Amino acid sequence: MALILLDENRDGLEEALSHLKRAIMLRPGFAPAHAQAARALLLMGRDREAEVEAREAVRLEPDLLPDVERLFGQKKTTGP
């Protein structure tokens, strides 16, 4: 599963995260929402929270592991 693109400006990320949190609240077992929340949090520099969401995404849907690993690998090569 490919992770969707998020608007990477701060306001766009905050809004995306708000929607993702709502989706998680409504369907806590929906792994893609957790994965997208992890991506938004990483882009916002909230690495510890991102890791929690990423772990939950992979717990719920192990097939997401390559996408999550790639996401965190990108953070290591392009992050602050």
Could you give a short description of this structure?
The protein has helices at 10-26, 31-43, 47-60, 65-78. With 80 residues, it is mostly helical. It is flat.
Characterise this structure.
By secondary structure, the protein is an all-alpha fold. The protein contains 4 helices and no strands. The longest helix is centred in the first third of the chain and has 17 residues, at 10-26. It is flat and about 30 Å long. The termini are far apart.
Regions with pLDDT < 50 over 5+ consecutive residues? none
Query: Fraction of residues in helices?
Result: over 70%
Number of discrete helical segments = 4
Q: What would the average pLDDT be, to the nearest integer?
A: 86
Give the SSE order as H and E letters. HHHH
Assign an overall shape.
Answer: flat
Fraction of residues in β-strands: under 5%
Radius of gyration (Å): 11 Å
Q: Calculate the terminal CA-CA distance, rounded to whole Å.
A: 27 Å
Task: Give the class from helix and strand content and strand pairing.
Answer: mainly alpha
User: How many strands, which pairing sense, and closed or not: the largest β-sheet?
Assistant: none
Number of strands: 0
